[in-house]
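> forwarded from #structure-qc
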């Protein structure tokens, strides 16, 4: 890629822009070597290129095209081939294909070319993205394609093939428990102005296969915090698969969750659960958004609405709400694995999808039918609130949520303060056991009549006794729902 290296090798699966690139290289005096399909395309446009099999004196087959000692030597050692333009078979774009078909989309020669050129960046430039072509041509024309420029090209190319290999590894081993190594097969999807705070850089990365399943229909530029909150709102709404649900989230914790006979009713009930906290929140829905619901949402200030689909008229109405980000996401993007970076590594775990399996009444009084329904609802909600988490609820609606606290009784006190609805029997769900009876005593002051919690404290009997004293029914689930 300097005055002494006037050979360019072109081998591209994605042929976008390659004709214009080759023509520009010819004008700059480059000899072009190309694989069969690319060579034929260039010939069709009157651009002379040497077919790679003629250049190497070998043969080109479907699986073996660029694997050649001569090619490798001229890239990796001598730098005689000073520019490599190569992108890979689109393994990442294949869906619903059987293993035998997928095997044929694993690129071997292309990866070798890119890696060799990147390794010898001191002499060779490597380009893989059609979006790079114009900049590369401009740099060559200006004579500024120096070692630093080639090093930056190498960095980007190595990132590309690392991503490509990760896509393949994820396809072959989707179960993370069986993988010795872990990486995410994602590429930059949405560039962002900043992260959690304006001084932090950020972007949203998503596997290319899934990018058409995440659509933004309007509103301001979506932010890092918007997506974090929308993930919780959408996941919590889909906790109620067979019911009409609405979840309003603020700072990654639900502030209102409700079910309804209609979607509009579910939204109204969720909003009334904590209308103060709902201001500027994120609305998550688990069904196609209807016009009636859109009208209600548009009457308040929210940052984001996220749902699996929208009626056309509902979409039109929401678009009239200035700044409202309207997001459509396929429920298939609620993945079974969650991970986060720590200490330069990655913590990986299964999504908390466990449903209520155990139900042990431990108090003198059993919960009534109404209380049982309310408890089961609250138990689904509490796992989406940050620990320590307490949910006060009536049947099909939250009335107060205390989350993210360092003490459980503190979470109860916050849920109690938020609980303005005392007209019906209130139940309580706790994501982990009560270490002392003070949480129960505080809940009793708020009119709580039934409790669901994992149990397992050495003071369980003390807590049970407190419930019996207050005539509160309590159920142990023997399952914890921490969410840190």
């Amino acid at each position: 890629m300097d005055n002494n290296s006037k050979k360019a090798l072109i081998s591209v699966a994605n042929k976008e822009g390659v004709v214009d690139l080759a023509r520009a290289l010819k004008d700059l005096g480059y000899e072009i070597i190309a694989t069969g399909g690319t060579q034929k395309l260039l010939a069709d446009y009157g651009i002379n290129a040497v077919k790679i099999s003629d250049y190497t004196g070998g043969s080109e087959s479907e699986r073996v095209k660029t694997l050649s000692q001569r090619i490798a030597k001229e890239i990796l050692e001598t730098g005689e081939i000073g520019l490599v333009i190569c992108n890979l078979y689109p393994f990442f774009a294949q869906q619903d294909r059987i293993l035998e078909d997928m095997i044929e989309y694993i690129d071997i020669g292309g990866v070798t070319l890119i890696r060799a050129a990147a390794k010898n960046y001191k002499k060779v430039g490597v380009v893989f993205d059609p979006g790079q072509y114009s900049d590369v041509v401009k740099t060559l024309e200006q004579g500024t394609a120096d070692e630093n420029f080639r090093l930056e090209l190498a960095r980007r190319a190595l990132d590309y093939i690392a991503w490509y290999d990760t896509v393949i590894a994820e396809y072959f081993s989707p179960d993370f428990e069986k993988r010795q190594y872990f990486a995410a097969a994602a590429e930059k999807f949405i560039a962002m102005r900043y992260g959690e705070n304006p001084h932090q850089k950020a972007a949203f990365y998503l596997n290319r296969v899934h990018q058409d399943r995440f659509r933004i229909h309007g509103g301001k530029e979506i932010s890092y915090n918007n997506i974090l909150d929308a993930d919780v709102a959408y996941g919590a709404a889909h906790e109620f698969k067979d019911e009409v649900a609405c979840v309003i989230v603020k700072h990654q914790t639900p502030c209102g969750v409700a079910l309804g006979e209609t979607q509009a009713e579910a939204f109204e009930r969720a909003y009334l659960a904590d209308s103060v906290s709902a201001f500027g929140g994120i609305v998550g829905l688990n069904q196609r958004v209807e016009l009636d619901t859109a009208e209600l949402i548009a009457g308040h200030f929210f940052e984001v609405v996220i749902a699996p689909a929208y009626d056309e008229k509902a979409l039109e109405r929401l678009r009239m709400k200035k700044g409202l980000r309207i997001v459509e996401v396929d429920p298939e993007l609620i993945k079974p694995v969650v991970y986060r970076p720590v200490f330069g590594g990655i913590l990986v775990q299964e999504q908390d999808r466990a449903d209520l399996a155990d139900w042990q009444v431990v108090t003198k009084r059993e919960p009534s039918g109404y209380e049982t329904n309310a408890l089961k609802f609250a138990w689904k909600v509490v796992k989406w609130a940050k620990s320590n988490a307490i949910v006060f609820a009536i049947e099909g609606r939250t009335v107060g949520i205390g989350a993210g606290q360092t003490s459980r009784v503190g979470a109860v006190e916050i849920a109690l303060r938020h609980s303005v609805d005392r007209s019906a029997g209130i139940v309580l769900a706790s994501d982990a056991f009560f270490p002392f009876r003070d949480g129960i005593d505080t809940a009793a002051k708020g009119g709580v009549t039934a409790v669901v919690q994992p149990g397992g404290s050495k003071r369980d009997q003390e807590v049970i006794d407190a419930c019996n004293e207050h005539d509160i029914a309590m159920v142990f689930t023997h399952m914890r729902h921490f969410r840190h």
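QC bot note: The chain has three domains: 7-172, 214-333, 360-476. Residues 7-172 form a domain with the Rossmann fold fold (CATH 3.40.50.1380).
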